[in-house]
Each structure stands twice: as C-alpha cells, then as structure tokens.
Specification:
alpha+beta, 2 domains, 5 strands, elongated
Length: 147
C-alpha cells in the first residue's frame, strides 16, 4: 500500500545497517524507504502503547460477577457498550474500526503491511495485526473474581 509522502530527509547510516534494511525490505516485499518509515512508525506506536496510562484503563463490574478490564489507545475514542457479550462487542469494535478507516484519525494509526483484525478468544478481545501481535489499540479482558 503506497502513501503520499511529501517530506524528504537524507540520512546517513552504516553499511551494516543499510544491509539489514535491504534484507528486511526484500523479505517484506517493500522498498527500503517503506521499510524505514514502517519501522519508525512502529517504534512510536510501541512507545505510546507499551504501558497504558491509568486514565486509559476501565474496570467494569459485570452482572455475572466477573470484572471486565478494558484498555488501549482507542479506549477514549470509541464510545461502546463494554457490558455486552464479547461476540456482540467484537462486532461493534469491528464496525467502529471500519468507520474510523475513512478518517484522518485512522491514518495516524495505520502502518504499512498491517492487516488489522478484531480477535476474540474465550475471555478476551484484542485488535491485532493478523494474529501476529497486539496493536495495543483496544484490549478487553474478562476476569473471574473470587469473593
């Protein structure tokens, strides 16, 4: 997927680093520039989402006695009913991401070679890069609570 990049920046690097970038770009079937940009963008995402701020975590007491923990970069962006069943919530998250995909906000989240999926396990939902890893955008976890 090509993007219109309108800022040029010349940079110097060691031959060893250039060789690593060339190899990575070949493996991922993209240009060296696309590889460098994707790696830079991914590093910023990791820094932003590695540890959610306390204001970016919600704990919801469900009627069945479980506690639902919700966190991630999109928590305060998506206004969803987090008390519904996980399968219905998965559908709402998917729909929300489809709507966001046409917005400028989506462009700040989307990176090269990402296949964004809303994955649902037995007790959790996670927005992932095609099962490779969590993107840190939104995670929903159900926890049993012993009284």
């Amino acid at each position: 997927m090509a993007r219109n990049l309108d800022v040029e920046y010349k940079m110097r690097m060691t031959q060893e680093l250039k060789d690593k970038i060339v190899e990575s770009a070949k493996e991922l079937n993209r240009s060296m520039n696309a590889d460098i940009v994707a790696r830079l963008e991914e590093s910023f995402l990791r820094n932003e989402s590695s540890a959610p701020a306390s204001s970016d975590v919600k704990i919801i007491h469900l009627k069945n006695g479980k506690k639902r923990v919700v966190y991630g970069k999109l928590l305060n962006t998506l206004d969803l009913d987090y008390t519904q069943e996980l399968s219905a919530l998965q559908n709402d998250i998917h729909l929300s991401l489809e709507v966001l995909s046409g917005s400028s906000f989506w462009n700040s989240l989307k990176f090269f070679n990402k296949d964004v999926l809303v994955f649902k396990g037995d007790n959790h939902i996670d927005v992932v890069d095609n099962g490779k890893r969590s993107l840190g955008w939104l995670v929903v976890e159900d926890h049993d609570v012993s009284t």
